[in-house]
Design goal:
There is one protein chain. By secondary structure, the chain is α/β, with parallel strands linked by helices. It folds into 3 domains: about 10-200 and about 240-305, Thiamin diphosphate (ThDP)-binding fold, Pyr/PP domains (Rossmann fold, 3-Layer(aba) Sandwich); about 340-495, Rossmann fold, CATH 3.40.50; about 520-645, Rossmann fold (3-Layer(aba) Sandwich). The strands form 4 sheets. A 7-stranded mixed beta sheet has the order 9-8-10-11-13-12-17, with helices on both faces. Helix 6 (about 125-140) runs parallel beside helix 7 (about 155-165). About 50% of the residues are buried. Mean pLDDT is about 85; it is low at about 185-195, about 230-245, about 300-305, about 315-335 and about 650-658.
Length: about 650
């Protein structure tokens, strides 16, 4: 005789539609079955255990009331999403959790249409969900955006940046669920934890407030007017019951705390907040490790479980898939000698006028990044995130997820502040976010804190990003247009100061060529060596070639345009026809454009050319004027020319060396 299934309710649920067919009284027993499945599976596979066990009722309630094929659910960190996976068409593969070719241990947008993000770090869900909500509002999409944020994650600076921004928005609908279990990996610490403990003691407030409202409104004739007049008094009472009500001061409508393991309370609370417009925070009290035997005695509340050891087997190697090559774009008009920042501002204004998906984001630098006119022209598509680069980048990813084309205009030196979000929220998601990196290179008087010398190093190592730098203003406009056409992340770096005018590009032997993805451009031909220059240093390279021509030395000058993808075939040909190549960049010599060139040539075996890398020395540089710091770093045209004159016999009739 067949044994009855230990999970009769769970056996009926493969997706949220199956879940919605269950009567409400069966949801609590279903949660018990879900906990047992998670415990049994993770004991074998290993993985995060305590967090997922604590949000079972919350997860079931969310999927019972929302449709996350349409609505968007963002899990902060993501290690609590195991019950979510079991309810979203993945239970047959749940035993492959964290294994090669199996299910991810986190939410994963490449794994399921129910997952909005591949999310593995803390603190960014509110920013991402806010970005989605703002993008939906701009595109008139009618769906809900929900972020589940742990109390420990809420202590991340970027989480407060998101709440601070969201609370100022009156026309954006966002639900932030505070999953308050008093733990991260270990016990949550800090002032915020103390504040949440106070909120735990105020669970009767919202219920009492609703009762008072209903009572006052029931008074014949004067009830509604009296109720409106007592609004401030009720807020005073609230602040007496719950001192320093942080979330409502930030602009959120606060509800809770709610017992996160009481299914009836969870459903009632979610049904209430789902109807509300604006930004709402639902405070849910949960127990990390609920249902794990002995979890209350562990220092980490059963945060993770180790897998059961089993024999390994060798898997066949997979053939990598090459990404699609995108089509080039058309050339644009001549430069008129404007500053780089002005070129960027004018260009994004023109592109935004032609495409209503284009949105500009800055981190408290609308003037410095050239976006003041854009702000006035497109107020609904301009976002100043404040001094909050992490939030700005994560929010941009949410906007891109919703279908917008965000351009993050952030100084090179400040983008470092949002580096984790660049990787987690943009690179891992393969989202078409454009990073416009102003002040790339040496900035002069602002000194070491503001020199933008490391963006190539910290971005070039990230897979799937396109990195480029223009030689002049028109090329910046072309590159911005190209970036907005790509279906992947991209970065454009440009310098402080004025973009060179065409007549300043001395010795340019040719006409402007359209920018093509991953293709370099020859500006001047020569037989005695080559300068492979990146970005605005092309002007220095042409000046150096002109100086060398006076000495009878003929130098080829190449505008690299792209650091990633590098034009490898062109570079190999350049190396085959010259004895010496000098790479030139306004970036640290460690890990930048020159390093990319050396890596490429080394990968293809011995080459004819000797390569010398010219860039900013690996040092902390003192502040001085732009001209002084360039001289200090040995990056003038004269310094470049000298690289080709060392050990070279004198040319008859040519002037002596310096």
């Amino acid at each position: 005789m067949d044994q009855p299934s230990p999970t009769p309710l769970f056996d009926q649920v493969d997706n949220p539609e199956d879940l919605k067919r269950l009567p409400r009284e069966q949801l609590a027993p279903l949660c018990a079955e879900l906990r047992q499945v998670i415990l049994d599976t993770v004991s074998v596979t290993g993985g995060h255990l305590g967090s997922g066990m604590g949000v079972v009722e919350l997860t079931v309630a969310l999927h019972y009331l929302y449709d996350f094929k349409v609505d968007r659910l963002v899990w902060d960190v993501g290690h609590q999403c195991y019950p979510h996976k079991l309810l979203t068409e993945r239970k047959a593969r749940f035993h492959t959790l964290r294994q090669k070719d199996g299910l991810s241990g986190f939410s994963n947008k490449w794994e399921s249409e129910y997952d909005a993000y591949l999310m593995g770090h803390a603190g960014t869900a509110a920013s991402a969900a806010l970005g989605i909500a703002m993008g939906d509002r701009m595109q008139h999409k009618d769906r809900s955006s929900v972020a589940v944020v742990g109390d420990a994650s809420l202590g991340c600076g970027v989480a407060f940046e998101a709440l601070n921004h969201a609370g100022s928005l009156e026309d954006t609908k966002l639900l932030v669920i505070l999953n308050d279990n008093r733990w991260s990996i270990a016990k949550t610490v800090g002032a915020l934890s103390r504040h949440l403990n106070k909120l735990r003691s105020g669970s009767l407030y919202n219920r009492a407030k609703e009762t008072v409202h209903n009572l006052i409104q029931s008074i014949p004739l004067v009830g509604k007017d009296l109720d409106r007049g007592l609004g401030d008094a009720l807020d005073i009472v609230k602040n007496m019951v719950v001192p320093g009500h942080l979330f409502e001061e930030l602009g959120f409508r606060y509800f809770g705390p709610v017992d996160g393991h009481n299914m009836t309370e969870m459903l009632e609370a979610l049904e209430a907040v789902k109807k509300l417009d604006g930004v709402t925070l639902l405070h849910v009290l949960t127990e990390k490790g609920k249902g794990v035997p002995g979890s209350e005695d562990r220092y980490d509340r059963a945060h993770a479980a180790k897998p059961t050891k089993k024999p390994t087997k060798k898997e066949p190697e997979k053939v990598p898939v090459e990404p699609a090559v995108l089509q080039p774009i058309a050339p644009v008009a001549k430069s008129d000698g404007k500053p780089w920042t002005t070129w960027f501002g004018d260009s994004i204004e023109a592109l935004a006028a032609a495409d209503d998906r284009v949105i500009a984001i800055t981190a408290a630098m609308p003037d410095g990044t050239g976006l003041m006119k854009f702000r006035d022209m497109f107020p609904d598509r301009f976002i100043d995130a404040g001094i909050a680069e992490q939030h700005a980048v994560a929010m941009a990813s949410g906007l891109a997820t919703s279908g917008m084309r965000p351009v993050c205009a952030i100084y090179s030196t400040f983008l470092q502040r949002g580096y984790d979000q660049v990787f987690q929220e943009v690179i891992l998601q393969r989202l078409p976010v454009v990073f416009a990196m102003d002040r790339g290179g040496l900035v002069g008087e602002d000194g070491a804190t503001h020199n933008g010398l490391y963006d190539l190093s910290f971005l070039r190592c990230l897979p799937g990003i396109v990195l480029m730098a223009p030689k002049d203003g028109p090329e910046l406009r072309e590159m911005l247009q190209l970036s907005l056409s790509l279906e992947c992340p991209s970065g454009i770096r440009y310098a402080r100061g004025n973009a060179p005018e065409l007549h300043e590009l001395v010795g340019w032997h040719g006409r402007r060529r359209p920018v093509e993805l991953g293709k370099a451009e020859v500006l001047r031909e020569g037989q005695d060596g080559a300068i492979f220059a990146y970005g605005h240093m092309v002007q220095t390279a042409l000046e150096a070639a002109q100086l060398l021509a006076q000495r009878g030395v003929s130098i080829e000058v190449v505008n690299a345009r792209f650091c990633k993808p590098l034009d490898e075939q062109f570079l190999l040909g350049l190396s085959a026809r010259h004895d010496k190549i000098v790479t030139l960049e306004d970036h640290t010599v460690r890990g930048g454009f020159g390093s990319a060139v050396l890596e490429c040539l080394a990968q293809h075996g011995p080459q004819r050319a000797q390569v010398q890398v010219m860039g900013v020395p690996d040092d902390i540089l003192p502040h001085m004027s732009r001209d002084q710091i360039v001289q200090h770093c040995g990056l003038t045209a004269r310094h470049v020319a000298d690289r080709f004159l060392v050990d070279r016999p004198a040319v008859a009739g040519a002037p002596a060396g310096r």
